[in-house]
Structure formats: structure tokens, C-alpha cells
Fold these 2 entries.
Entry 1:
Amino acid sequence: QVQLQESGPGLVNPSETLSLTCTVSGGSVSSGSYHWSWIRQSPGKGLEWIGYIFYSGSTNYNPSLKSRVTISVDTSKSQFSLKLSSVTAADTAVYYCARARGGFYRHFDYWGQGTLVTVSS
Amino acid sequence: SYVLTQPPSVSVAPGKTALITCGGNNIGTKSVHWYQQKAGQAPVLVIYYDSDRPSGIPERFSGSNSGNTATLTISRVEAGDEADYYCQVWDSSSDQGVFGGGTKLTVL
């Protein structure tokens, strides 16, 4: 059974960089059948797709966040990571990592439990 | 970018049928996926490729997609179905994931 687990600081200072890691078990981030995404949910709000990475390192990001987002992958550790720079209170959210399958019709079949990141001094 | 529109809330009595819609321009030409999110939990995929159910999802959950509207149908609604439901597509033109705003299902 595939499992994803987010980890990282729960509190980040404004203007600094948010860094999270997703560890994948029961499956491999090196598989060419899947993409690996980050998705967030602000308190009381809906889901927002942040971006994805493929095992080869190719990425794509939500245009609204593109200037501040970097997603990377470490296949040796079966992990992928999110960095979001210059954070503000608006970036306070539960951050989920998820596996996507389906090529041009991608959907998210496995999710992490989510981790709450609060931006505050 | 592609926009998906959902009603903020739907209410239904136990045992009845809930219909949750997801609107988008020519959404019938896309593949729509649905997620259930219960309070304090991560989303769970309940329908993919418009109408397929993952293993473990009850047959009471079904989906359809045509024209400008996709629909998630929950038959014989139970109290345990109370949750937020999100539709999602992959916008292949921009290679991005897109979610609807979510619909809160209340079981009366």
C-alpha cells in the first residue's frame, strides 16, 4: 500500500522560506507512471494545486505561485520536496503531498495526511 | 486558466439521492475526478475518469459528465456521507491541476 507522509516546520516567519518534504513508501518516486504533486488548503477554504514533479525532474507550477515555488525530487530517498519563498500569512494552510496518475487525465489517488504550516512571527 | 464551478452547499435527507454538480466550459470533453473530504481529514478519491470507482468506494457513488456539467450522484445517502466534495480536472493545455471550489454536503 502506497503511503505518503509530509514533514517540516509547522511555523514559518513571514518573508522566509517554507520547506516541506514528502516521503513515499510502498511505491517509488522513480516510477514513470506517476507524477508527484503538492496541494494546499487554507483554513476553511478549498483545495489549491501548487505544482508537480516527475521522476526525471521536470516540473510545472500554478501560475499564481510560480515565482516563489520550487519542487524537487530525491529518488535515492524516495522523497520529493516543496520550497515556497517570501511567505506571508496568506500562505498559512494545510499542505498535502499526493500521487497523480492518468497522463493527460491526471487524478490524485494517494494523499498524505497533510501538515499545517502557519506563517507568523 | 480553466475554471470549475460548484454549488457551495447541498442538503439531502438520509436515504435520498444527492446530486453535486461541477460546471466548466465544455467539461464533457475532459475527464472529471471527485474527492470526498471529511472534517479534519485528507481528501479521498471517490470517482475518477468521470464515472469509475476506486476499490473500496461504495456503488452508491456514481458520476456522469456531459456538455458543460459533470455530476456526482450519491444514492441512498447516509449520515457518514456528510463531507466536502471537490471536482477536479487536469487542464492538459496548461498541464495543471484544477479543483472546483467544493460543495458541502449536509445530511439532514
Entry 2:
Amino acid sequence: KNEVEQSPQNLTAQEGEFITINCSYSVGISALHWLQQHPGGGIVSLFMLSSGKKKHGRLIATINIQEKHSSLHITASHPRDSAVYICAVRKWMNTGNQFYFGTGTSLTVIP
Amino acid sequence: DTGVSQDPRHKITKRGQNVTFRCDPISEHNRLYWYRQTLGQGPEFLTYFQNEAQLEKSRLLSDRFSAERPKGSFSTLEIQRTEQGDSAMYLCASVRYANTGELFFGEGSRLTVL
């Protein structure tokens, strides 16, 4: 079983729709990251959370440490939001920080 | 551009050949990670350096894989006697020590083994 589970795996939305991607994890963490990966492109960090909520433009990320759950919301979605969104958790190990990744949610926003 | 560069971006090789990938992290970042990503999957941890010291290796990293970071700056990942199952995107990421923990990824090196 993967330490990080994301849902849904695939998501298609109409332009303008409100989108939610969920992430659940099973290990104790020091932080959770939301990452974006465009087709053929590298991975870009969107948010790093250890508690509460963060907002950047049309993107909002929340985390509930007790429930070991995080959500990424996209308001007023746009075709340029089409990408794979990956949830990753950071766990402190004796050798330093280690990161565990979800398998990603592939988002397609249709004009 | 995240500041982490990888080379080459694409490599096509025949089974049995050796390949080497290079990663140049952000200069002040002490920690460097190598990951492997296959289609539809998230990145899988391969190995991790703190400066020049290789602190952890995944069980995924067979004897055919070796990684170095000789001066604590750039890193190389070598795959010897490549197999078709090695075909994947190889990602490098760096993070500052005692850090905010934000990962910066390179664009990746895509390996195709024929």
C-alpha cells in the first residue's frame, strides 16, 4: 500500500468549474507538498503545508493533520491548468528528510 | 526554470549499453535526490545525497545503478548494462539543508532502452 493516496486518478472538467483533488497519507509527516507536472515537463512546487490553508491565485490548499488529509482546490479552472497534480509528504528520518509521492491526478480542463 | 538542470533531456540506447545522467542542483542546496518516474506513477525514490555523502539508497537501486556527488555540487547517475525495464524518466531534485523543505525538481532525463 502506498503511503500517499490521491483521488481521483483522472479528472476532466469544463472551463470555469471548481476542482478538488484529494490526498490522504498514512505516515507521520512534517509537511505536505502539492506539485504540478505538465506533459513532458518538469515538476513545479505549488504549495508546502504543515497546517491550515494556503492560497495562491486561483489555487487553494488545505491540510487536516489529525485526519491525515489534504485537498487542492482550483477555482475558475482554465485549460492551462491541465496537468498532473502530485501530492507528496515529507517525513523526517534519521538520515534526513524523505519524501513520499502519490501517483498523481491527471486533470484536463476543456474549453 | 527551477534552477535545477539535468542533462541529457532524452537518451535512447540499446539494451546492454551504459548511460550516465547529470544533475546540477541549485548551488546553495546541500541535499540532492534522484527519483525515477514511469508513466502514470509518482516519482519513486532512488537515492539521496547530503553534500558529497550518499546517505540512503532505495532497494530499487540495483547493482547496475551507481550515483555520485564528488564535490557536493553536481551529481551523476550511471546505469550499467541497461535493460528495457530501466526505461523511465529520471528526476533530480534539490533542497536546502535544515530547510523549508521545498523541493526543486529538474526537467528530468528520459531514458528509452531499445
